[in-house]
Amino acid sequence: MAGEKWRLTDSVVVPAVVGLTMTQARTIATQAGVVLAQADPDGPPLGALTWPGEYVVTTQNPGPGARLWRWDSVIVQWSAVDRGDSAGVREPRWPLPPTATSGAKREITTRQGEKLPGSQFRPTARTEGDCY
Fold first, then answer.
1. Are 68 and 37 in contact (CB under 8 A)?
2. Domains of the chain with bracketed CATH
3. What value does the mean pLDDT take over residues 43-53?
4. Core-most of 3, 10, 16, 43, by most CB within 10 Å?
5. CA-to-CA distance for 32 and 20, rounded, in angstroms?
6. How confident is the model at residue 4 (pLDDT cuts 50, 70, 90)?
7. Is the Cβ–Cβ distance between 66 and 13 less than 8 Å?
8. 51-76 as b/e, with b when 16 or more CB fall inside 10 Å?
């Protein structure tokens, strides 16, 4: 950088982006005046490789504190964020099953007219603010 007086831009300090999500790292890099890029200059852009999904920056070159010309590239590597179980959205059963909160008893009559002795029905106690 010492002998390059022909550059019409200023130098900036490279920020630390390792450990940040790709979105956070891109924001911080832009605010510092550098651009994040992948290692292969002939490959697809970084945004195409990290979308959709959530990724974390694992390495960067040059490291934090180095000086680059404004809008030069910082090469990063990344890995996908592991969110654990990928079973999808879990919703409660609808309608909710009765719970043992009330203790009310009621005999149940079958379609044939037989009464089942000792049957219990325990309705769910609803309170204000419950969503059903």
1. no
2. 11-80 (3.30.10), 96-124 (no CATH)
3. 88
4. 16
5. 15
6. low
7. yes
8. eeeebbbeebeeeeeeebeeebbbeb
